Structure formats: C-alpha cells, structure tokens
C-alpha cells in the first residue's frame, strides 16, 4: 500500500470532438498532486454497451451532463476520498457497487470511466512516472500497428455510404515511423483524387473524408487504386480494413443498406461481403453483421479466407462474458477493446485478459466522439496491444494520439519498434 491517498475528486463538464458535453474527472492526492481524464463518446453503439448518461433536459438540447458532475462531486467523492490511489481494482469495484446496475445506468459509464481513467493517471503522476511506464506489464514494449480511417460513412458521415469506416492498415511497414509515413501518403493521395474527381463533401467525425460515391464498390475500387497510386502493393504493404457497423442498417430479418433499396436477405448479404473480400485487398472486417446475428458471424468465419481478421465490437462491447460467448460460437478471431463500453479500467483489463486467454487478437480503439486526452495511447503501449485504432490522419483529437505514440517511442529509445502484424497475415 502506498501513502498516496485520494483527498479530493472534482467533476466538470467539457466538450468532445463533436462539440457535445462530456465528463472530466480530476483527482487530487494528499492535497497537492492531481490528474484528470475525459470520457469519450461513441455514435455507433452496441445494445449491451454500458449506458452513457445524459440529463435529457433543455440544456444543450438534452446532451448536458450536469447530473453526472453532481454525482462525482457528491456520492463518488464521499465514497472514494481516503482510498489508496494505487488500488485501482478496489476503487473500480466501489464505483460498480455505488452504481449497482447491470449497465452503469445510475452513475453512467461516461461518469465511471472518467473517474477510473483519472485514478490511473493520478497514480502514475504520484509515482513520478509516465502512464505507459507505470502500467509496466511488459518490459519489451513496442508501438502498436496503426489502423487509420481514410473514408468515413455510416453514423460518422450521415447521408453517405452505409459502411462506417473504410480504413487502411500499413501491415508491411517495418516500423512505426514508416507506418505513419505510408498512411500520410495514402491519406494525401485520397484527398488529391477526391478533389480532382469532385467527390469531396467534407470531413467525417473521425477525420476521414466524407465523399460522394454511388455505392460501396466504388469506394473499394477508389481505395485500392489510391493505395497503388501512392506507391504501395495492396495486401503485401498496405491493406483495407472495414468497419461495417451492421447494427446501423439491420432491418427485420435482413439488411437494408440504402433507403431506396430493398431489404437484403442475411445469406445474400453474407455472400456480398465474401465477394468484396475476394475481389479487394481487405484483411480485416469489423462487425460484419448485427449483434443479434451471432450465428451468421460463425457461418461467415467458416467461409471467409483464413487470413481475414474478423473483429467483434458491438457484438461483444468489451464484456468478458460476451467475448467468451463469441469464442464458444467461433464467431470472431479478434476483438475491439473500448474502455467506455464497459465503464472502468479494471473491467477493461478483464476483457483484455479474457481475450488473450482465448487466443483472440485484441485491438484498442478510440471513439468517434474523442477528446484531447491521450490516455488511450499510453494504455495501448503499457498493456501491450498489437493494434491501435483512433480514427484518421487529421483533426487534433486524432493526431494527438499518434503524436503521443511518437513521444513514447522516443522515450523508449527503440527506433520506432512496432508490433508485427497478426500471424493471420503471414502469407503476405
């Protein structure tokens, strides 16, 4: 036990990257040392995700978090003052007990994660060390392989194409510096082409381009050509990753990608996805089906190429029990980890450990409503994640995460050593 005791906790309202109110928690230790953290927010969410609590009153069109702040400044403060700042598990357990609901609906997951993250940050500060170093679970730390959005759609660019994220993974890059340079080249080439072809509408929530395309296949052709025109070999050096986010267009017993189109049968939709995977340099696909269609995930995994990374996000929502179920069903081989989906750092760690125990590949992810808080960069390196997904290569709330990874690489003096891609991709 340390001598560093929580002496004060303060909540405040700040804003995320979409200009929506969110929760910041500030923790003081021994009356003089303090740290703070800000809760992110998702647009595309799973039905079993921990609840993001908002006031739903007149302030900020119902998006205010005044009650969250009140809960931090009263109930949470009263119950956590005096706790050892390094006893993360006990503090998180206390938050869970105070909430006393199955989905954090009383305190709100945006409240509990802000407090939980602030506790971890402040513990590192109290030990006069960086967060990534304080976590210290692996002495041979490396930078995770980046996964970066180029084209945004779905809930991140409403009125655009239904698939949420068209991303790239520089899976052939020898180090993190090269990985960022390769991403930079593809991102810039995409802008150049969209402007020339008069297809650029704006920028999506996560910093990717918000374009005009008539259908999904047009985007896949465009992105494949852009990779090639940037000087890279698809699959071998730079590949495509898709976040389908199929929850958003699940319709009755099938899927309805566009409002003016008929509903597509489950099996037809599955065959369409397999066709795209076989035609284009796609090595990763996230939430290809809605969360209630877990058996469809399993069928898809049986038919998909062995190299395909099949990622559960809305399907498992960083929940160890749902991860176990997905593994039992042979539905996925990878999982997205998002701390605010479950509500505390300790529960996030449990999800990570459960995934590793089942030999499921893990990817740490930011949210579409992000902040200037770089917590996730430190966490990705401290907990030895192999991949990191934070959005695109523009907007300061995104670049700040990549910048923090660069700082950490410099501090480690490891010449930008980066985790190798999953062994699924060894054939490339």
Explain the overall architecture.
- There is one protein chain.
- 37% of the residues lie in helices and 18% in strands.
- With 428 residues, it is α/β, with parallel strands linked by helices.
- It has two domains: 6-128, Enolase-like, N-terminal domain (Enolase-like, domain 1), CATH 3.30.390.10; 135-425, TIM Barrel.
- The strands form four sheets. It has an eight-stranded mixed β-barrel, surrounded by six helices. Strands 1-2-3 form a three-stranded antiparallel β-sheet. A three-stranded antiparallel β-sheet has the order 9-10-11.
- The mean pLDDT is 93.
In brief:
By secondary structure, this protein is α/β, with parallel strands linked by helices.
Q: Please state the overall shape, judged from the principal axes of the Cα atoms.
A: globular
CATH architecture of the largest domain: Alpha-Beta Barrel
Order of helices and strands: EEEHHHHEEHEEHEEEEHEHEHEHHEHEH
- Radius of gyration, in Å, reads 21 Å
Distance between the termini: 49 Å
Output the CATH class name of the largest domain: Alpha Beta
Task: Kindly identify the CATH topology of the largest domain.
Answer: TIM Barrel
Number of E-type strands: 16
CATH superfamily of the largest domain, called what? Enolase-like C-terminal domain
Secondary structure: helix percent: 25-40%
Which strands sit side by side, in order, in the main sheet?
A: 4-5-8-12-13-14-15-16
Low-confidence stretches: none
Structural class: alpha/beta
Task: Tell me the strand percentage band.
Answer: 15-25%
Largest sheet: 8 strands, mixed, barrel
């Amino acid at each position: 036990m340390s001598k560093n005791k929580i002496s004060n906790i303060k909540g405040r309202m700040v804003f995320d990257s979409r200009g929506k109110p969110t929760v910041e928690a500030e923790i003081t230790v021994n009356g003089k040392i303090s740290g703070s953290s800000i809760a992110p927010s998702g647009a595309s969410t799973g039905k079993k995700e921990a609840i993001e609590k908002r006031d739903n009153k007149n302030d900020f069109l119902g998006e205010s978090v005044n009650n969250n702040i009140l809960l931090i400044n009263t109930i949470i403060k009263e119950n956590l003052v005096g706790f050892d700042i390094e006893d993360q598990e006990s503090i998180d357990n206390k938050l869970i007990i105070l909430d006393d609901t199955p989905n954090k609906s009383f305190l709100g997951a945006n409240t509990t994660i802000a407090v939980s993250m602030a506790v971890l940050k402040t513990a590192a500060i109290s030990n006069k060390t960086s967060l990534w170093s304080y976590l210290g679970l692996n002495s041979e730390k490396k930078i995770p392989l980046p996964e970066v959005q180029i084209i945004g759609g779905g809930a991140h660019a409403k009125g655009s194409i239904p698939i949420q994220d068209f991303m790239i993974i520089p899976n052939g890059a020898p180090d993190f510096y090269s990985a960022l340079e390769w991403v930079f080249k593809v991102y810039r080439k995409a802008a150049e082409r969209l402007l020339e072809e008069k297809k650029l509408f704006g920028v999506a929530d996560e910093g990717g381009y918000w374009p005009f395309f008539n259908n999904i296949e047009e985007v896949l052709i465009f992105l494949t050509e852009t990779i090639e025109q940037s000087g890279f070999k698809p699959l071998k050096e730079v590949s495509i990753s898709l976040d389908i986010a199929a929850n958003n267009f699940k319709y009755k017993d099938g899927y309805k990608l566009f409002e003016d189109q008929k509903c597509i049968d489950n099996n037809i939709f599955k065959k369409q996805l397999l066709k795209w995977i076989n035609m284009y340099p796609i090595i990763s696909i996230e939430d290809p089906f809605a969360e209630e269609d877990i058996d469809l995930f399993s069928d898809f995994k049986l038919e998909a190429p062995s190299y395909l990374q099949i990622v559960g996000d809305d399907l498992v929502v960083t929940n160890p029990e749902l991860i176990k179920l997905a593994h039992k069903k042979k539905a996925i081989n990878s999982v997205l980890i998002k701390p605010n989906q479950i509500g505390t750092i300790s529960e996030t760690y449990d999800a990570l450990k459960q995934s590793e125990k089942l030999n499921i590949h893990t990817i740490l992810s930011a949210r579409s409503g992000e902040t200037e808080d770089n917590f996730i960069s430190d966490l990705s390196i401290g907990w030895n994640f192999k991949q990191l997904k934070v959005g695109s290569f523009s907007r300061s709330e995104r670049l700040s995460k990549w910048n923090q990874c660069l700082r950490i690489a410099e501090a480690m003096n490891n010449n930008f050593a980066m985790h190798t891609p999953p062994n699924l991709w060894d054939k490339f």
